[in-house]
Amino acid sequence: MKEELMKRIECFLEKHPELKGVPATLNEIAKAEEELQIKLDDDYKEFIKRFGGSYAGIAIHAFANGSSMGNETIINLTNWCRESFEGDEFSPEINKSLIFSDDGSGNPIAINANGEVVIYYHDLGEKEILSKSFESFVEENFAEW
Question: What InterPro entries is this protein classified in (predicted)?
């Protein structure tokens, strides 16, 4: 990820420590990749190794999230989504994706196997590509306040 963006997020989180998680370890990342049977996106890994589960315009979950973000890990979120969508048309894609957030209405937000950030509208049976990459997704959504 661009260092300028990472510095902006770092400065923001210093002012709002309740939104910053505990940085992820290489061991936690390796265990998640093994359990979920996917390779985590490189930019996402860079983010969580620096900030853990933190707020960057939207809640970005990891293993230890900021205290005001909830306790759901990416393993919990991804497994829940895989179970919820089992057997539907999105199941094959979701099984190769990482769920790292939601929209507040229960619609999961994922990084798919192509590196795109996608939202799955569970009530509508539709999906929407939100951004071409995790980095661009963060850039488009992050704003200091």
Answer: Knr4/Smi1-like_dom, Knr4/Smi1-like_sf
At residue 103, φ and ψ (nearest 5 deg) are -95, 10
Reply yes or no on whether the pLDDT at 73 is more than 90: yes
pLDDT digits over 15-55, tens only? 999 999 999 999 999 999 999 999 999 999 999 999 999 99
> Please, what CATH class does the domain formed by 3-141 belong to?
alpha beta
Amino acid 29 reads I
Listed by start position, the domains of the chain span 3-141
pTM: 0.95
Task: State the angle between helix axes of 26-36 and 74-84 in degrees (0 to 180), rounded to the nearest 10.
Answer: 10
The closest of 94, 1, 101, 25 to 57, measured between CA atoms, is 101
Whether 107 and 119 have beta carbons less than 8 Å apart is answered as yes
Structure tokens at 28: 């936690």
